[in-house]
Amino acid sequence: MTSDTPRSAGLSHWPPAIRLVVSLGLLGYFAAVIVPPLAGPPPASELAVAALQPLRPLVGGLFLGHGYRFFAPDPGPGHSIQWTMQLADGSALTGSIPDRDADWPRLLYHRRFMISEKIAAVVPPPDAPEEVRQRSRGDWQPLVKDVAGQLLSRYGGSQVTLQMTEHYLPAPEEVLRAEQGGDVITPLGTYALAGANTP
User: Fold this and answer.
1) Are residues 121 and 25 part of one domain?
2) Which residue in 59, 70, 135, 177 has the most C-beta neighbors within 10 A?
3) Does residue 10 sit in the same domain as residue 49?
4) Does 1 reside within a domain?
């Protein structure tokens, strides 16, 4: 009578080449799960970013590139989109995406917060070189136009002006010293349902 259990006996019948392929496949999958959060939005180590490059096809194919670090202890600054709308009667309406008071239930607030964060990920800062700002416009402007169109349709406005605010996130030392920093404002343009002005 052999001392091997049926499971260990079955594994021992796998040829070494198949065991190697399965082991490499599992290691590749585990790497594709672990590396994207480490190489997520800044601050990220250069080693993690370099390790992600060969895994990009697998990470993209399995949709594993989630921003887990968004909720980590060091999430980075938050973003919101402020808007001012001209209504047909000449009055103005203002709002924010997300809106802590109006976006209820909380899941709706979270989803709208993801909109502002998605746009913030592709809009360069105001002090970026003009060449960078021009090149990136094709990435962010369609998203902003969609947001503007939704706002205009919802509130019946004639035009809406949007700007993105990067909310200042103080370092622990600044909190202890009660120092205040300033938010960074990036204009996103003025839009109307019939067309959009160049921001």
Assistant:
1) no
2) 59
3) yes
4) no
The pTM of the full predicted model, rounded to 2 decimals, is 0.62
Query: Which pLDDT tens digit goes with each residue over 121-170?
Result: 899 988 889 999 899 999 999 999 999 999 999 999 999 999 999 988 88
Gap between the Cα atoms of 180 and 19, Å rounded? 58
b/e 52-63 (16+ beta carbons within 10 angstroms → b): beebeeebeeee
Q: Do 40 and 15 have their domain in common?
A: yes
Looking at the structure, tell me whether residues 83 and 106 fall in a common domain. yes
For 167, the domain range is: 79-196
To the nearest 10 degrees (0 to 180), the angle between helices 130-155 and 106-122 is 150
